[in-house]
Structures are given as C-alpha cells and as structure tokens.
Amino acid sequence: MSNTSLREMVIRVIDGNRYMTIGTTESDGSARVSPVYVSHDRYNDFYWVSSPDATHSRNLRARPQVSAVIFDSTAAVTSTAAVYLSGRAEEIAEAELAVACERAFLHLSGGAQAFTPDDLRGATPLRLYRLRADRHAVHIRGRDPVFGRGVDTRQVVTIGDL
Hints:
Blueprint: H1 3-16, E1 19-25, E2 31-37, E3 39-41, E4 45-50, H2 55-62, E5 65-71, E6 82-91, H3 97-104, E7 127-140, E8 153-157
Antiparallel strand pairs: 1-2, 1-5, 3-4, 4-7, 5-6, 6-7, 7-8
C-alpha cells in the first residue's frame, strides 16, 4: 500500500469518527483506556475536554506518553479500519488556551460544543487536553484482497504536514 493510500485511509478514518479511545498508564503500570470525544488539527494534534480529576487526566499528568485508537465500531467485520496513534498528551496551559481553542474547535460536528478559554480555566471543572501524535499507523485486515498478509497487521504511516 502506498503512503498516499495510507494517508488517505488515516484522513478518512479520523474525519469519519468523533471518538478516540486513549490509553494511559496507571501508577501500578496497568493500562487504562478511556473514550473521549475528539477533534483534531491537521491530523497530528488531537483535542478533548475533560475533568482534571478524571483518572485518565491524572494518569497523563504523571505519565504523558499515551496510545490511542480511532475506529468505527459500527463497521462490518470485512470493512474495519482503524488509526493507531502514539505520542505525548498534556493539559493545555492557560497561556496557550486562546490559540488551542481556535484549533481544537474549528471543525466540530454532531452538535458538539465549542469551548472558550474562559470555559476551561480557573475554577471551571473542565480543561482542554491535546495528544500530539508522533506516530500514526493503520489497521490492515489479514484478508485484505490487496494488502493482507494472512493476519491483521499495523502499517506505520508518514503523515507529514496536512
């Protein structure tokens, strides 16, 4: 599969889905996965709003290296597609909120709310988080008629500047 085809798959999957499952690490080393409503900026920065008291928020403060997956859970077994991400996640600092909110809430759909910096600072109960992906990979079905290898695999994709 050419990198162009893989990039097209990444774009299609990310644009077609609004939830990301983010994997953080607990203090005892065990994995924790959490679904979050996600938006993105150029397929490299993934944003969500959450409570700083949520377990996944506490986990990423202590251990910011995370993994995530975006996929369509309603897809037929023969039509599965997923984008796997890894990178560093962080709470957006108050000084960066104005720019980050512009980027995070530029392409919302499905009735999602755009937050302002004032909604996400001080005594408010929510914060803006970002996963800056340093690695993208796609799911290739083992029985894919063109790219299958007999077993499901992940293929790394170079995204670059989109």
